[in-house]
Amino acid sequence: MPKQEFPFPMPNGWFCVSRSDEIKAGELKNIKFCENDVAAFRTESGIAAVLDAYCGYSGINIALCGEVIEEALYCSKTGIKWSTDGSCIDIDDDSLTPESAKDIKIFNYPVVEMNGFIWAWHHLLKEKPYFELPMLDGFNGDNEKWGKVYHYEYKINTVLQEIAENDVDQAHFPKVHGSPSLPETEAIVDGIYRKTIAETLMDPNNDSVSEEFKVEDQGMFTTTFTRESWGLGCVGLHMVNLPPSGGEFIMVNASCPVDNKNSILRWSMRVSKDIEDELGMAIIDGIANGVLDDMPIWDNKSYVANPILCDGDGPINKFRKWVSQFYSEVPDTA
Ligand SMILES: [Fe+2]
Fold first, then answer.
1. Long-range contact set of residues 134-141: C-beta below 8 Å, sequence gap at least 24
2. What's the gap in Å between 121 CA and the centre of ligand 1?
3. Does residue 184 carry a pLDDT above 70?
4. The sheet that has 72-75: what strands, in order across it?
5. How confident is the model at residue 161 (pLDDT cuts 50, 70, 90)?
């Protein structure tokens, strides 16, 4: 049987372009985002913007040839200054570019910045955002309760749907991760929002935890693990009742579809200060390493359109039904 490639187009929703602190004021980056080349930059006053990388006048890649000057993206090849909304705001006097270039607009992606990340809205048919992302507790300057933030970034050789499906694939936790099976929970679904709450057995000494972070005198414990998704791009995770003092763990999973074979996951994690020096790192490191077990599987996986499941309408099929709302029909351009 030949390998079946993932059959859907780029999904619609808010996706992560970059960590906020990785595009500083005046900085410009050339980024692959949902199969498109984009110019992601931050103006000198601090506004983050994402434009299509190709200049509508010359076709030049302004993510590579441009530079941020004050509040604009300037292309020295054409002498055009592009505003954050993609309109042409100025053309150099000595440039050969005609004045009519002022009518050209480059597509600008709607952008929001929160939870430590820059997010851009992707819609296959260029429709406007129809939902908002939430400000997640602990990732917007509220530092009093929380310890250090740990960042991780993973380049994954598959699409976001396959990665997210992993969370509803109960059977793989003991087999792939050597971790206790998570009890199946009913997802609470409300449009683009999806939430699961699971009483989860955790082991701070499991194989995913690096030797230096293991906590030998702490046995297995149960925590309430809440996972909330806003579309396919943003997931917030929260664990409570962590030993020894009832501490908490929080995490943002900010995802970016690069193209139909590659994705980038950016994770930020932190625990409450009361357990930071106890088993905080065992939890963070164990989760950060756990995904490494999945990666070789994703590298080589074929898409199965109609998986045979023990329960005919099991969580994978329910999950696929929820995800289906994020795909537009591919426009027929033939
Ligand atoms: Fe997994």
1. 134/230, 134/236, 136/236, 136/250, 136/252, 137/238, 137/250, 138/250, 138/270, 139/114, 139/115, 139/250, 139/252, 139/268, 140/114, 140/115, 140/116
2. 27
3. no
4. 66-69, 72-75, 80-82, 88-91
5. very high
Residues in the 5 Å CB sphere of ion ligand 1:
166, 294
Distance from the CA of 93 to the center of ligand 1, in angstroms? 57
List the structure tokens of 128. Answer: 């406007």
Taking the centre of ligand 1 as the mean of its atom positions, its distance from the CA of residue 166, in whole angstroms, is 5
Ligand 1 centre and the CA of 174: distance in Å? Answer: 9
Distance, CA of 57 to CA of 7 (rounded, Å): 34
Residue ranges and CATH numbers for the domains of the chain are 13-122 (2.102.10.10), 150-323 (3.90.380.10)
Q: What is the pLDDT of residue 309?
A: 58
Cα 180 to Cα 154, 221, 278, distances in angstroms: 24, 11, 22
